[in-house]
């Protein structure tokens, strides 16, 4: 069994894969203060929930955009599972060409998303990841990442809204029943939802205009499910896309 770990700014998401099939996913809040023992305990508990033990894990691949968490998490893998994890980064074969001004600046999570989208759905493809930040990356028909786009995630924008205004409360990020809001909470929910959705649709339309050829749009990320049913501009919402990409990358570097 392969354990794939996506260390993001908000959550650490762990996926367990058997023969390329995802058999379980679990989330941990990303905290730099967690010790290796705390991470190790969580991992063993997740394994037990699925009916597994540490001995069932054959290898681990990690994709991280939070360097300060890596030391403790890597130490937990070594201590509790008994081997050094494979880390997506320099020296790892991803199977993707990156044609950007500075390829090293492209996040490992974006690379894994693109690998998962291209090798699962084919190309050309626009990959949208709705997380702490919202990213769009375009992969052409040859598997080359040719452009990237980064903007604020909807929750990040929402936290700025209620964090910088004295009388606006924290609200759940959800689809409102109507844009015709009648109180502060629903007014905020409608404003956040429709402003963000409109931005997503305009972004995809602009990609189509400038690229000038048909492509699929594959969305992923925890907040992607909020929008998947309200726009016909997203072809597929795949919450496990990064794990598919990591499994593919692992297969190219298997030890």
Q: Please, how many helices?
A: 6
In the CATH hierarchy, the architecture of the largest domain is: 2-Layer Sandwich
Output the radius of gyration: 19 Å
Shape: globular
Provide the residue-averaged pLDDT.
Answer: 92
Order of helices and strands: EEEHEHEEHEEEHHEEH
Number of strands: 11
Strand content: 15-25%
User: Major sheet: size, sense and barrel closure?
Assistant: 6 strands, mixed
Broad CATH class of the largest domain: Alpha Beta
The side-by-side strand order for the widest beta sheet comes to 6-9-8-7-10-11
- Name given to the CATH homologous superfamily of the largest domain: ATPase, nucleotide binding domain
User: How many structural domains can be distinguished in the coordinates?
Assistant: 2
Question: What percent of the residues sit in helical stretches (DSSP H or I)?
Answer: 25-40%
Structural class: alpha/beta
Distance between the termini: 14 Å
Quick description:
This protein is an alpha/beta fold. It has two domains: 2-87, Nucleotidyltransferase, domain 5 (2-Layer Sandwich), CATH 3.30.420; 97-246, ATPase, nucleotide binding domain (Nucleotidyltransferase, domain 5). Helices cover 37% and strands 24% of the residues.
General description of the model:
The chain is of the alpha/beta class. The protein has two domains: 86 residues, ATPase, nucleotide binding domain (Nucleotidyltransferase, domain 5, 2-Layer Sandwich); 150 residues, 2-Layer Sandwich (Nucleotidyltransferase, domain 5), CATH 3.30.420.40. It contains six helices and eleven strands. It has a six-stranded mixed β-sheet. A five-stranded mixed β-sheet has the order 3-2-1-4-5, sandwiched between helices. Helix 3 crosses helix 6. The longest helix has 28 residues. The model has no long low-confidence stretch (mean pLDDT 92).
